[in-house]
């Protein structure tokens, strides 16, 4: 099969690449997941019965090990420190911290040329280990626009909210308004409402918002994010963070067919020497530097890029896919894998927009 990019999961920057191997029902599949972060560990822990990774079910959070013939190999650049017990709602990823990549923006032209921190988790669990742990649902209008205006068939509020609910295990908090029908109750990510302490919120913030013409919302998880509300956090009832590493990976960590390599940085995608029949490049695995600094190659039937909004384009460029001006300046061989690259924006003004498709004629933005 040609390396077609089947889906893009917008919030997690996942690209799914197929290898050249044609598989029959019941045959073993080896998945190589680049990035053991928020989405990478979730995908790795989900069961995959179908032979085509394009049928990956977002609503299915059961264990990959239920199909014991499949092998999943996760390559993560960060370590696995403190994976079991992250107390408190957030970890402060300070500059210089080993759990942060410590990226910074270019001077922002329209923000007084400020340089801001671009926090990105460098740890098993990715940025779900270092963010503010808020678990909020998106706007129904925004998600429906993906389908209606951008042609992303099937990507709408109904399908995506069902997927979110399947990941959620919501526990309402006494004396706080919530609508349980807006939430999931059997997912791996535990979610609870956090009650602010003191009178600042109840006697100061909320009345000020209402007095200014705003509204107090009972529950914003039904697709209407307007108003002010006590936002839930991804936390267990004991105030320990519930995130990708301890909620998706740890329950499956003992599975013989799930391998996670930490302190291992992917350097490039490995392409087959021979192209497919229609001239497309074929992804057969990845190269990475392991914890000892040894260059290692791992092969797979499916390569899943889940290295985040920054890391996934970087891995692609290191593999010869992306802006030719950038790639050629670094003496990287330009792959002939199908890609579309749209320029015209720089990071300090808006952003670079990368578009990938199996069809060179496909011009709709994702």
UniProtKB/TrEMBL annotation:
Record keywords: FAD, Flavoprotein, Glycoprotein, Oxidoreductase, Signal
Cofactors (names): FAD
Signal peptide residue numbers: 1-26
SUPFAM superfamilies: FAD/NAD(P)-binding domain (SSF51905)
Domain Glucose-methanol-choline oxidoreductase N-terminal: residue ranges: 121-144, 308-322
Keyword Glycoprotein recorded: yes
Any Pfam family matching the protein: GMC_oxred_N
GO MF annotation: an example: oxidoreductase activity, acting on CH-OH group of donors
Similarity comment text for this entry: Belongs to the GMC oxidoreductase family.
Name listed for the protein in its UniProt record: Glucose-methanol-choline oxidoreductase
